[in-house]
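Reminder to self: tokens first, then the designed residues, so the page reads top to bottom the way the pipeline ran.
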């Protein structure tokens, strides 16, 4: 409808955009990162170079070269590497089985849902589950000992030592690998295999020349992620290992809470700083591999 003569039309309303409005939704994320990541990292870094008198010192970092600390780092790296490799291989095989199944089938939905739950099933709850199952008085241990005549602890109580940690850590590494590696497996297109077959290539040639080079970066990246996950785990090991400190997180706990040797809080922060450096290097390599795999599979 045209406006009456001599009456100006109302000006069109303009949308007012607040400066930085696009970043407003990211404020909670940045606040979370600052409070729970940046600030603790800064506290650890400062404390690692602070002496008992409050002044600057490098003694805490220099003590990282002591034999028992190096041994703890070695056991932590060994534990993380072995469980990451086992979890990566077994999880990749399970993920491949899911990819070959129906996309909307019951098997894939059940396994992916279970993997999402089991990947977060750690800490004290997981330790208690293993103790109740294969502990000294666990029902599986008693069944094997009383009914089958097999004593799984004939050579020692391995569950509460490094071999037990290897078993328990691998338990939650496998479902995590399924979650992380499954998108990469879904990115392998069936047309590539059909093209290889049409050119006369065998199944082994397809995997060796096409699929494996494409899946290698995401597989290695997922393995590094599993390494970082195991290297930083604490609650499960703290619940299982009651005596001694075979890995670095337990060494840090001993330095922070020891009532026998006082004044080791800053040494604990120095060990935590060493863990941060290791995890930072691993996650940097993981980011590089993810970038390459996204480029190839995109």
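Designed residues (298 positions):
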């Amino acid at each position: 409808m045209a406006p009456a003569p001599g009456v100006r039309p109302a000006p069109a309303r303009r949308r007012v955009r607040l400066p930085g409005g696009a970043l407003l939704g990211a404020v909670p994320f940045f606040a979370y990162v600052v409070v729970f990541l940046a600030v603790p990292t800064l506290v650890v870094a400062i404390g690692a170079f602070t002496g008992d008198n409050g002044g600057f010192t490098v003694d805490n970092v220099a003590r990282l070269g002591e034999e028992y600390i190096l041994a703890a780092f070695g056991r932590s790296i060994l534990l993380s590497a072995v469980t990451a490799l086992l979890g990566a291989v077994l999880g990749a095989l399970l993920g491949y089985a899911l990819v070959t199944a129906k996309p909307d089938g019951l098997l894939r939905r059940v396994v992916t849902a279970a993997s999402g739950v089991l990947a977060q099933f750690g800490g004290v709850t997981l330790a208690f589950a293993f103790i109740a199952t294969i502990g000294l008085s666990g029902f599986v241990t008693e069944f094997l000992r009383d009914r089958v005549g097999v004593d799984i602890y004939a050579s020692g109580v391995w569950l509460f030592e490094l071999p037990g940690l290897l078993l328990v850590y691998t338990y939650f590494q496998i479902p995590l690998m399924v979650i992380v590696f499954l998108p990469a497996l879904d990115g392998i297109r069936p047309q590539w295999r059909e093209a290889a077959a049409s050119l006369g290539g065998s199944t082994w040639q397809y995997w060796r020349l096409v699929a494996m080079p494409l899946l290698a970066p995401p597989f290695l990246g997922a393995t590094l992620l599993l390494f970082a996950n195991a290297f930083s785990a604490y609650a499960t090991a703290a619940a299982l290992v009651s005596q001694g400190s075979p890995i670095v997180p337990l060494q840090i706990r001993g330095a922070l809470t020891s009532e026998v040797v006082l004044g080791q809080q800053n040494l604990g922060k120095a060990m935590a700083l060493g863990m941060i450096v290791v995890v930072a290097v691993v996650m940097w390599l993981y980011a590089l591999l993810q970038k390459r795999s996204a480029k190839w599979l995109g």
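The first helix runs from residue 27 to 48.
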